[in-house]
Amino acid sequence: MENNIKFLQTVPLFNGIEEEELTHLLECIGAKEKTYIKNEFIFLSGDIPTSIGIILSGRVQIIKEDAFGNRTILNDLSAGAVFGESFICGGKFPLTVSAQAAENSSVLLCPFDLLMHICPKACEFHNTLIRNMMVMVSRQNIKLLAQLEVTTKRSLREKILTYLAQLAQEQNSATVTAPLGRIDLADFLGADRSSLTRELKRMQEEDLIQFDKNTYTLVNAVSLK
What we know:
- It holds the Pfam family cNMP_binding.
- The protein contains 7 helices and 11 strands.
- The chain has 225 residues and is of the alpha+beta class.
- The longest helix has 28 residues.
- It is elongated.
- The C terminus is likely disordered.
């Protein structure tokens, strides 16, 4: 735990909390570090959540599976990301999504009952953490709206272009690196891999995009519409 304090200070959840205070805070809430191998579930749909997770290393995907076994990736998270926070303010209800290690990962689990209640000692840094949490939940809601903009498009082409346009805006470049590989991107867009590959090739032939593995270039302004 001590080896991760400096890193944890860079996580938005702990903005404004000094190193000594953060060490005390994590002890106060009983935070525990756990490791997960690739494809191991951290949270399962249907579970009643007891903690939020902070990724110390590796990658975690938030996924949803329907009754037919179709898998949709809702989020792909890397070191420093926090997950599960949106469920904290919603009370103790079963999860509708799962969190799965996309590669071998280390996660800090923080019990949300202690996290979201004012410390009996009225520690100011605990109050700071709660304020940070509110900001994070708000930003996560904004991110979910952006994802809905992609996934609710009618055609696969519209979904691809909207997704790439959002990445172009985030990375401030017409050439972007997608965090998702082809299989995961297909899951995110609600398509199968072969359909996605065919559509990408057609779009390249029509000079809408150029791509090489996870690098994509939006060729002209039409692609951004």
